[in-house]
Design goal:
Number of strands: 16
Number of helices: 12
CATH topology of the largest domain: Rossmann fold
Shape: globular
Number of domains: 2
Order of helices and strands: EHEHEEEHEHHEHHEHEHHEHEEEEEHE
CATH superfamily of the largest domain: P-loop containing nucleotide triphosphate hydrolases
Strand order of the largest sheet: 3-4-5-2-6-1-7-8-9
Oligomer: single chain
Length: 368
Amino acid sequence: MKRERWPVILLTGFLGSGKTTLLNSLLRDPAMAGTAVLVNEFGEVGIDHALIQQACGDVVLLENGCICCTVREGLAAALLELADKRDDGTAPPFERVVIETTGLADPIPIMKLLVDDADVSHRYGLLQVLTVADATCGMVSLDAQPEALAQVAPSDCVWISKADLASPNQVAALQARMELLAPGASVLSSASATDRGLLLLACSESLAAAPVERRLGWARLAQAEHGIDCTCCPRRPLLTALPHVRVHSQSVVRSAPLRWDVLGPWLEMLMQTCGSDILRLKGIVCIEGEEEAPWAIHGVQGHLCAPERLSAWPGADRRSRLVFILRNGADDASAAAGPDDIGRSLAEFEARQGIATADLVFDSSEAA
């Protein structure tokens, strides 16, 4: 019998951004009942006392049917132990898992674990990376802290917190910067009830049931008119360059359907060549002979996940779009994925197969 795989929401954000406040708010909603929360130390979570029902060992039962567990022996071990306890009835059943990182954590290793570890990926699947950014001081954190940059770049959703405490200009500036830094992400605001509803709906989905229109980030990617920061669109403000890290986004947009026998080997080659330089790959692609519905493509630091067929196109536009978030050392002149290299490599790959690439569009943006 095939075992159930549970969706994982990776909740990250810089110190003081409001992760715990958002988590408490989500857990209070009936739609999020049956959520398991994993944290490094329970004392760091600050789950409101009103939510706590009783404690038994490392498992804290919450009043809405959720549970909270400490992580002491490593995340992989904690996830597998939690799954075993659910199977044998020693832990309450849950429908999803939220992993809350510390304020200085890089989410990429956790993402890799969820997609690359055979035992973990057999029981769990990454639903979304949710990053919280403080509207009052998020710009300062991005300019000064490489950890904040690393938390935003691979996001599926950026939640702008404390919007009620910031000026409209602060919120608008932070949103514009987030859209540049995380081109495959939805940017939502705590000041919007509509955005709160979108976030709640996306967080309460199962792995199998979430259509593209309710997948945070994927819908924005599918509606992009051009490549990232293309020359015909007004340039948005760039992040201040950091001396110790550079982040680039590169996009490939195709109007003609792609072929699996070209796309698959090309992506595998990129993952092997660029490795950890590719923080994240996200794409919605139209495949030759299967044009009625798109495929979702994603990968994390050298690991390419299995493609996933979506139920339908989110609109009339059926162009393929691939967005790469890349990190290179500022002094590494030999970095494998320089500006425009990815788009050109696809053209070269197709040329060797005798495929014309006249409709290939690729754009690059140095985000930090």
